[in-house]
Design a protein that fits this description.
Order of helices and strands: HHHHHHH
Oligomer: single chain
Radius of gyration: 16 Å
Shape: globular
Helix content: over 70%
Length: 111
């Protein structure tokens, strides 16, 4: 018992992953991202940042399930929809991309 008190916070894992990314340590960054998802499976932002990481690595098809999980946890995440659309465009599936873009609410013009 008491392991939870010693486990790193979501923020600590997030910054650890970002440090690895900034150093070009892709494998290490991926391990930390996955550790974050296991420790904090209900944090939509964890799924989002890993999906974004995979897109940056040009691993578009791999990114999609992570972005999908983000949207299950946070259906209003416009960024997850944009990243999903980007992945589908890169995969040549423009119709799928349009579905994600169409689901983003239009901003009301200020009068």
């Amino acid at each position: 018992a008491g392991d939870a008190a010693n486990s790193p916070s979501f923020e600590q894992l997030f910054y650890q992953a970002k440090v690895h990314e900034s150093r070009g340590e892709v494998k290490e960054a991926e391990e930390v991202h996955k550790q974050m998802l296991v420790a904090y499976p209900n944090r939509a932002d964890g799924w989002l940042v890993f999906g974004q990481f995979l897109i940056q690595q040009k691993r578009f098809r791999e990114a999609l399930p992570y972005l999908e999980e983000c949207l299950k946890l946070d259906p209003k995440s416009e960024f997850a929809r944009l990243l999903s659309a980007e992945a589908w465009i890169e995969l040549g599936e423009h119709e799928r991309a349009l579905e994600f873009l169409a689901a983003i609410p239009k901003k009301e013009a200020k009068k």
